């Protein structure tokens, strides 16, 4: 039995129909005999909408209050996904970053993860249920909510996978993996079937938007295999593995 962490970005949970599709995907993965923990971003443009609302009230809002506001988006998507999984006949429990044990430094808006202690997540998985965690957020030593900055949900997913000892961290997006260029702009772009951390880090540092730089760095530090794939198809995406690991040995790749 493999333990898989699946992360779904904003485009994958953009509306209720998308959330229902994600729920089916999660339940399908679990029915294959896997334990599944899920990390979700806010729905669609929710984060940008929240920022716009804040700026319409105060052009220089307090950083602490902005982080309190920013955590709202993921709370919506995590609870709706739990409901959708319940509607599919399975059981799921949703957790905020704080409830899932994400401890960060005190920096608002761009916090760094200091420790992940996912005791409640582990308990849910031990019971055979799905655990859903709000990405992009944690709690500092003061007990205040913090956010990890752009791409923070990717980092949340990898950090959770490491803390749980997962077999793979799957990053679901709206394209079939990592390409040599943006396939929505360059039709001749080629998908990279498999790569190492250094190669993907170089692409991320050069502006590739598929994976956040911090996410890949975290995965490399702890040798966590990644599978970047589309939530809109079941095709194999891009596998990022440590040296010496056979990509074909990873679970749930097809």
In short:
It catalyses: L-aspartate + ATP = 4-phospho-L-aspartate + ADP. With 254 residues, the protein is α/β, with parallel strands linked by helices.
What does this structure look like?
By secondary structure, the protein is α/β, with parallel strands linked by helices. It has one domain: Acetylglutamate kinase-like (Carbamate kinase, 3-Layer(aba) Sandwich). 36% of the residues lie in helices and 20% in strands. Strands 3-6-2-1-9-11-12-10 form an eight-stranded mixed β-sheet, with helices on both faces. Strands 4-5 form a two-stranded antiparallel ribbon. A two-stranded antiparallel ribbon has the order 7-8. A hairpin with a 7-residue loop joins strand 11 (226-230) and strand 12 (238-240). It is globular and about 50 Å long. The mean pLDDT is 94.
